[in-house]
């Protein structure tokens, strides 16, 4: 049942190319048109949307944070992202022109369910991104996009996260299409790249062996920091969450630009810091800024573990460990950049003797508020 692996988590990590392909299956036409049937929101409903609010918990929340960058860039619709447990207690402003997207792997997280219910009471339109067919959140939503990742047994979300990202991209690109945005060429180019993501993830999986060795060498560390910019920031947050829940280690993510506002004081000799570097494509300034962030922390003694796209020579001189991922458009990079972080956390946890499928104190689906 574990497909020859010792743990479900390892199986679910290697299943990711297929899982992402299944999310895209039947939804991306050869000519680049997208069909999202179960959305049950008509193109005219979608043209009326003035604001998008994404609500989710944990890893699903990180998928939402990444979606915001993509949706605002492609669709020019303001998009907020909030953890579900905070959402309904702050009197949020919602109406018929608000699209609320609830992201939940299980479809049963009580916080997310209560938040989406509240949104519907306020007459917002609610769309669910969910992995479990017929679960409560999609049943109570106006529309749904199932991720079709297949059952995820490991408590830590892996393949369901990558497929949530794919689903978010589909929604963003579909909204851009129905709203007839002027830069149709960019949208079509991204759709073509999205369709190729399963092979890109496969390439990452083929090259993660050094990540395993690195993780094992860090099993005595007490803290690991994660830095990122742009979509690399939520990826860093996801890397930190995986390490906390699996390896029971202190792990924290910062937006790299925030370093100088405080966290840089944490840097000391030998401290492992993972840095997620954005693709160079279209993001030159951002890329240069993060390279100087890496220089700054290294000058203060950090052991830099850099995730960057292949052939990124600018990061080489400052990387104690370099993890290369395929070159893809920046907005899609989280799909490839997250995979080494999953492997890193899993391997480090195994080196500490932890059960990665059943981490202590955690449940797969959190049905209490
Ligand atoms: C982390 C993890 C949790 C879930 C969170 C939301 O690996 O699995 O943080 O992401 O509990 O669960 P769903 O997506 O089922 O609502």
From TrEMBL:
Provide the SIS domain boundaries. Answer: 42-181, 214-359
Give the keywords, sorted: Aminotransferase, Cytoplasm, Glutamine amidotransferase, Repeat, Transferase
Write down the chemical reaction(s) this protein catalyses. D-fructose 6-phosphate + L-glutamine = D-glucosamine 6-phosphate + L-glutamate
Primary location recorded for the protein, binned into one broad class: cytoplasm
EC number, as in UniProt: 2.6.1.16
What positions does UniProt annotate as the active site of this protein?
A: 364 (for fru-6p isomerization activity)
Q: How does it assemble?
A: Homodimer.
Q: What is this protein called?
A: Glutamine--fructose-6-phosphate aminotransferase [isomerizing]
Please report the organism this UniProt entry assigns to the protein: Salinactinospora qingdaonensis
Query: Gene encoding it?
Result: glmS
Q: Which residues of the full protein are shown?
A: 249 to 617 of 617
